[in-house]
């Protein structure tokens, strides 16, 4: 979508600078030709990463072809290609969020090529190869890899100069304006600010009538602007310590944005300038912000969920069938209880449980906090809740992908709204898929317990996530399965 018109911002009329086109549709309406990137939609496919793979693989093949014919074993070629691609991937050399120079990558690329050749030569017939031939092959491989990657990066820089990447600037409004103005003065940097998201909303009223980029006053407006303008980069300036801002940045990252932290002012002390992933953008020091555990956690955690939930559904099938039959005989039809809960990134889903209580109305089901001690429940229903057997149906939610085995417990929309206002850390719990059990639950925070304590444990779990931590929580949950009260 393109536009060259003045757009009204949430804080008053502000004009859009030339070259910084920005479109913000009315609330609740999507721009024509654009869809909300929810489940089932993807960003346009990018070709930079496959081009880098091709450059590295082609360079490895060229180096192998320089070997004498008796040593051109197909297995050696395969090992060289896979080894180089694997080491480069582990070193983030296929990260397309920045465009490095050829000389910047030279030590990392050449060093890994030498390591792969040394490993292959040590455990293959290449041990008998003359040293001169081996050194020549390695040198050609290094030169070809650096030249190929330099060509890919040059094409990317040229494309970014012709069509800069739209970006949102997040942070204190005064600092965000200064950084955005500096970036607009440097069109060759490859980033074009199209909007500001102030984290000091109390001073937004002071910006009324000021010319400049539109100021977005809410997370919803930032997301709509992101969708309608194809924003792929978010620049964070100033202190990014507020819980609300952290939750918003996690939401923007979930939409496929690359997050960069910019140092708007030079540090006065304590900085050695040797930060991993650092660089500069139009003279501002920057570093890439990566959600902790997101890169490997998404795959590893999902594999664990599918394997264990599928196995447990098969093993627990007879138990679920017996419980359902007893409930059907004692309480009549309708043994499965369905209820809307809020999951990852605030998306609602339908959670399944065995019915242990029949609410008087839909309003009671959505707003009544706890029924664990309800006198109207039968002894069998109390038994199901005390042993958490009524939760076993949630294994199907895990298998489908609505939930995870381990994560913050999902809550109803009514209480999510209440708790989000009362407890600053509550919205941050939705950075990860909700779970059947979690760090809070194994510490006794189940049922009618402190929401503040639950928030603290849930956010600590997400911030320090590891696959081994999930395994430990599952083992501790299994050990306590028949003792705690149901949630």
From TrEMBL:
One of its GO terms (cellular component) is membrane. One of its GO terms (molecular function) is phosphotransferase activity, for other substituted phosphate groups. Its main location: membrane. It comes from the Bacteria. Residues 301-482 form the Bacterial sugar transferase domain. It is a multi-pass membrane protein. Keywords: Membrane, Transferase, Transmembrane, Transmembrane helix. It is found in: Membrane. The chain crosses the membrane at residues 51-67, 73-94, 106-126, 132-152, 303-327. PANTHER family: COLANIC BIOSYNTHESIS UDP-GLUCOSE LIPID CARRIER TRANSFERASE, UNDECAPRENYL-PHOSPHATE N-ACETYLGALACTOSAMINYL 1-PHOSPHATE TRANSFERASE-RELATED. This is Exopolysaccharide biosynthesis polyprenyl glycosylphosphotransferase. It comes from Streptomyces ferrugineus.
């Amino acid at each position: 979508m393109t536009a060259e018109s003045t757009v009204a911002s949430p804080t008053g009329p502000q004009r859009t600078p030339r070259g910084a086109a920005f479109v913000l549709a009315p609330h609740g309406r999507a721009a024509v030709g654009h869809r909300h990137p929810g489940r089932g939609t993807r960003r346009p496919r990018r070709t930079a990463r496959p081009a880098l793979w091709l450059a590295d693989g082609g360079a490895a093949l060229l180096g192998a072809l320089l070997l004498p014919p008796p040593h051109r074993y197909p297995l050696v070629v395969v090992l060289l290609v896979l080894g180089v691609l694997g080491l480069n991937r582990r070193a983030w050399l296929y990260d397309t969020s920045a465009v490095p120079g050829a000389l910047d990558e030279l030590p990392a690329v050449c060093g890994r090529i030498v390591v792969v050749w040394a490993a292959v030569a040590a455990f293959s017939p290449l041990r008998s190869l003359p040293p001169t031939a081996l050194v020549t092959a390695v040198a050609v491989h290094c030169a070809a890899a650096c030249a190929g990657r330099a060509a890919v990066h040059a094409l990317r820089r040229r494309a970014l100069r012709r069509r800069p990447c739209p970006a949102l600037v997040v942070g204190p409004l005064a600092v965000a304006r200064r950084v955005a103005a500096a970036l607009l003065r440097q069109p060759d940097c490859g980033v074009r600010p199209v909007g500001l998201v102030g984290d000091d909303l109390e001073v937004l009223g002071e910006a009324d009538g000021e010319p400049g980029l539109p100021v977005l006053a809410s997370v919803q407006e930032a997301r709509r602007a992101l969708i309608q303008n194809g924003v792929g980069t978010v620049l964070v300036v100033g202190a990014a310590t507020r819980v609300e801002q952290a939750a918003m940045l996690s939401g923007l990252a979930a939409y496929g944005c690359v997050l960069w932290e910019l140092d708007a002012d030079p540090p006065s002390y304590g900085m050695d300038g040797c930060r991993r992933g650092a660089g500069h953008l139009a003279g501002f020091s920057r570093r890439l912000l990566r959600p902790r555990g997101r890169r490997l956690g998404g795959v590893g955690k999902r594999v664990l969920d599918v394997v264990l939930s599928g196995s447990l559904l098969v093993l627990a099938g007879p138990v679920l069938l017996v419980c359902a039959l007893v409930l059907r005989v004692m309480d009549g039809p309708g043994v499965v209880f369905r209820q809307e809960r809020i999951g990852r990134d605030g998306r609602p889903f339908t959670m399944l449980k065995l019915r242990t209580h029949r609410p008087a109305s839909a309003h009671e089901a959505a707003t009544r906090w706890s029924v664990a001690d309800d006198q109207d429940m039968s002894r069998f229903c109390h038994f199901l809740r005390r042993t958490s057997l009524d939760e076993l149906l949630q294994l199907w939610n895990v298998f489908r992908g609505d939930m995870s085995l381990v994560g913050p417990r999902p809550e109803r929309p009514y209480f999510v709204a209440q708790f989000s206002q009362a407890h600053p850390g509550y919205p941050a719990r939705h950075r990860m898929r909700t779970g059947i059990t979690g760090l809070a639950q194994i510490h006794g925070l189940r049922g009618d317990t402190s929401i503040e304590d639950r928030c603290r444990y849930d956010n600590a779990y997400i911030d320090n996530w590891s696959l081994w931590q999930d395994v430990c929580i599952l083992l501790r949950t299994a050990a306590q399965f028949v003792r705690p009260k149901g949630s």
